Amino acid sequence: MRRLQPPGWPPPKGYANGIEASGRLVFVAGQIGWDETGAFVSDALAAQVEQALRNIVAVLAEAGAGPEHVVRLTWFVTSRDEYLTSVKEIGVAYRAVMGRHFPVMSVVEVSALVEKFAKVEIEATAVH
């Protein structure tokens, strides 16, 4: 895997502008902040982010992959404002699960998610 950073561009914080990779592709469906029993771990956005990422890592493990193989994350959040006010806690939760691996990412605000209590849904693509 090689991070792509155009000359003269400021380094991104918490994500990569691009990644070049080759290998076996793993696609992980959108994961939300509930545990393996379907119970939400918390009403707090950062806690739901951490659980969604833990769910992604569990799915990746089924393919013999780990967080270091993730090349893209797409986040859907129900509140841009809550995301921005929780960004420090989200960073802590992210690093607890993903370490210091920062793939290509997009964060999109949506009006709602299918699961009523979900505040975030995260999709992942990995290459290993």
TrEMBL record:
Gene3D superfamilies (UniProt xref): RutC-like
Pfam family, one: Ribonuc_L-PSP
InterPro entries, per database record: RutC-like_sf, YjgF/YER057c/UK114
Signal peptide range: none
Top-level division of the source organism's lineage: Bacteria
PANTHER family in the record: BLR7761 PROTEIN, YJGH FAMILY PROTEIN
Protein name: RidA family protein
